[in-house]
Fold:
Amino acid sequence: MLVTGAARGIGAAIAAAFAERGDTTFMVDIDGSGLTQHAELLRGSGGAVHTMTASVADTAGVASVTAWVEAHAGRLDILVNNAAVPFRKAFFDTTDHEWDEVLGVGLRGAFLMSRGCWPLLNRPGSCIVNISSVHRNRLLPGLAAYGATKGGIDALTKAMALDAAPYGVRVNAVAPGFIDTTPDWPPPGPTRDEHYRQIAERVPAGACGEPDDIAQAVLWLTGPQARYVSGTVLEVDGALAAQAYPPLKHV
Ligand SMILES: NC(=O)c1ccc[n+]([C@@H]2O[C@H](COP(=O)([O-])OP(=O)(O)OC[C@H]3O[C@@H](n4cnc5c(N)ncnc54)[C@H](O)[C@@H]3O)[C@@H](O)[C@H]2O)c1
Structure:
């Protein structure tokens, strides 16, 4: 399996879940030192772990990734397009460069990686999973570029599922809600307490999810139990996206 954006957060948890069950795991990230650090923790945990520092946003980077996987394994059974750039700014203040970077990594990157890996993946039973977001169709101020990326990921997932279905390849997405990927931020103290209090107030399940909650969803979606599941977006968000708004307290 191959996961992008694997140096930290959700991508690192996805790599860990697959490596721990014994899969050969290819980890790609633009952050080489984070990647090396995380891969060291996984070595010896199960399957072989390989790392490559590359950007998913450019064709040359993706070509080097696919050549590397081909040289090591000759094939790929699972691709997880997880890399993205978190970004929050009103559309009227967003520069061309910022727009291109956010969509270039999060949306173009998923397309480039999927197209590049297709010759390695094209076999019945293979899967692609794209990481979307609750913000794919539920927005907040400042999410024009990020929301367009994740809305685009939904459409890309469904369109790729249709193209891939005749070949026995499944394509799905996972849409996380609040996932606790920054345990050191905010630092311990009143701001941190307030941060978690506000999240608990907004999420029906009453707390953030863990990166491993997303990894477990990816394991299931790529496993034999989900053999007839394709073209879908699985929300893993403690019912956040099901809610119109947090209930009024006085009613
Ligand atoms: N954390 C959340 O609460 C949350 C919620 C909804 C959706 N998501 C989505 O889940 C995924 C992972 O989120 P996260 O919080 O772990 O993100 P993160 O920002 O902690 O990690 C993203 C990783 O992608 C890498 N990356 C950035 N640009 C890259 C490039 N050009 N090529 C290769 N790698 C690159 C970064 O170096 C980083 O390691 C993202 O797609 C994100 O949009 C996260």
Notes: The first helix runs from residue 9 to 20. Residues 4-5, 7-11, 28-31, 34, 55-57, 82-86, 105, 131, 133-134, 176, 178-179, 181 surround nicotinamide-adenine-dinucleotide (CB under 6 Å). Helices lie at 9-20, 32-42, 59-72, 96-121, 144-164, 190-202, 211-221. The chain has one domain: 2-242.
